[in-house]
Amino acid sequence: MTTDDSPVILAIDDEPRVVQAFDLWLDDSYDVLTETSGEDGLERMDNSVDVVLLDRHMPGLSGEEVLDRIRASEYHCKVALVTAVDPDFDIADMPFDDYVSKPIDQVELREVVEKLVSLEQFDTRLTEFYSISRKIATLEAEKPHQRLDESEEYAALLDRRDELKSAGKELLSELDSEEVNKLFEAAEPAPK
């Protein structure tokens, strides 16, 4: 069972089985809230939520609309899109922290949540670096090299990652290298 200081995870997916599975898989370490619509998820949203697991396509408010409203309300939670939607270059401008393709199993879900919860302790530049690295890795796993080479969005992500890498070298040197390596192990998606 969780304690009062357990991180709060909000799972929003229109498939009740999915949020029930997430609750079951995470319940021993986290305080898990579940909703089956974007509207209900937003009503449940507050500053106590640490991580949102969000389906991208839902009836009513889509996951993208929910994500935009979470960011517009300036909640400081981390958001992972957990979706069956194949990523395209439009993800470059979406303000999520991780993109996970369904189906997802318990081990992968727990790893994603642990990484996102651990990001809270880091500087915002490092969390942006993580988010951009995940977008790059997701696109590289899904798109052929030729499409990547032709994409302005992909090129912009690479440029921003390089800027953050240069600016963050001093910051990274101050952190425990084992801690940083563990965090960024997730930057490369597992082979399909």
Task: Give a description of the structure.
It contains 8 helices and 5 strands; from the N terminus they run βαβαβαββααααα. Helix 2 packs parallel to helix 3 and helix 5 crosses helix 7. Strand 1, helix 1 and strand 2 form a beta-alpha-beta unit. It has one domain: Rossmann fold (3-Layer(aba) Sandwich). Strands 2-1-3-4-5 form a 5-stranded parallel sheet, sandwiched between helices. It comes from Halovenus salina.
Give a topology summary.
Elements: E1 8-12, H1 16-26, E2 31-35, H2 38-44, E3 49-54, H3 63-72, E4 78-83, E5 98-101, H4 106-118, H5 124-142, H6 145-150, H7 152-174, H8 177-184
Parallel strand pairs: 1-2, 1-3, 3-4, 4-5
Helix pairs in contact: 2-3, 5-7
Modified residues (4-aspartylphosphate): 55
Domain Response regulatory: 8-117
InterPro entries: Bact_response_regulator, CheY-like_superfamily, HalX_domain, Sig_transdc_resp-reg_receiver
